[in-house]
Amino acid sequence: MQTITQAAVETTGAAPLVEASGPGRLVSLDVFRGITVMAMILVNNPGDWGHIYAPLEHAKWHGCTPTDLIFPFFLFIVGVSLVYALGAVRQKTENHGRAMARIARRAAVLYGLGLFGALFPHFDFSTARLPGVLARIALVFLICGIIFLKTNWRTQARLLVGILILYSVLLQLVPVPGIGPANLEPETNLGAWLDRLLLGTAHLWKQSKTWDPEGVLGTLPAVGTGLAGMLAGQWLRRPAPDAATKVVWLFVFGAGAVVLGMIWNGWFPINKALWTSSFVLYTGGLATMALAALYWLCDVQGLRNWIKPFVVFGVNAITVFFLSGLVPRLLNMIKIPATNGKAVGLCAWLYDTFFVPYLSPINASLVGAIVCVLIWLGILWVMYEKRVIIKV
């Protein structure tokens, strides 16, 4: 089923290292990944950033919208994928060194893609954002990959609990140097202080300049999200009396994590930008239940007549995520004269010409995002039919 082109580079933890038709592959995982990446593109490409429906925006600070689920779901999927990618390698300790070298190389490629996206098109290193979505994926993949090779599930569960407690202590009890008591405010929390100390304001998120939603300290609980995915993946791979037992217990674990996250929210609020411990539990629980439902539908019941649009996104997930951020900037470098006499980028011109005159501002913005998803669906569908799977 799967042929990789000559131009392809090797896989990341965002995709299993097994053939698509292989016995160890989860169809549900490709579907889950595809749904998640499709949602990423939808929320990242509105026609107008000033007009967005509330569920398609991130929470202003504390709280969680559907959009806030997308990134933790992806990191959870990275964790599950590692189990299927490295499960056989872990049993052969003599291959661990080579496997870790591959993990490190792939993490470096992921980070490099993120850095390229931050630099393009001016390539000014003095102001390039050093954290970012791909940077966080790379770090979580690297750290979780090594942990998976060197530990068993019990140790991983203990690490997850320890990370969540440690992060809560750091953010809620440790005073912030030069600022004062521990706090959870955007610019004055311990993570924001550490980002400014290590990276300087020039290399942080441009919208804030004083803190970064993918900052250094937040990588610690993000690893916890990856560990949650690893634990779910190992549960799916373990021998069990039947698939129904696996699914039921995944729902139990997931629901329990959601409840614990909501309880913890009372004193350590659910917050994506801080990636709080309650956020890890809440989103990890929802991801576990989503995976359980998809596993039951796709892998157990074999109900697959609806999945192809998501699979074509899932098998080229990193590729489409990277290009969906790069291509609009390339197109906007092409300038088109506007009615007011000023030149606008091609993407902006297309939006102003074919969407704005016919729809309300907020609906024009939504339809523009949907069209963007459909365009990428068409491109990825052709790639899938031609068996072009670019693995990063």
TrEMBL record:
Query: Locate the Heparan-alpha-glucosaminide N-acetyltransferase catalytic domain: which residues?
Result: 25-238
For this UniProt record, give its keywords in alphabetical order, as a comma-separated list: Membrane, Transmembrane, Transmembrane helix
Q: Which domain of life is it from?
A: Bacteria
Alphabetical list of InterPro entries matching this protein:
HGSNAT_cat (IPR012429)
Alphabetical list of Pfam families matching this protein: HGSNAT_cat
Q: Where are the transmembrane segments?
A: 69-87, 107-123, 129-149, 161-180, 215-236, 248-267, 279-298, 310-331, 362-384
Name the record gives this protein = DUF5009 domain-containing protein
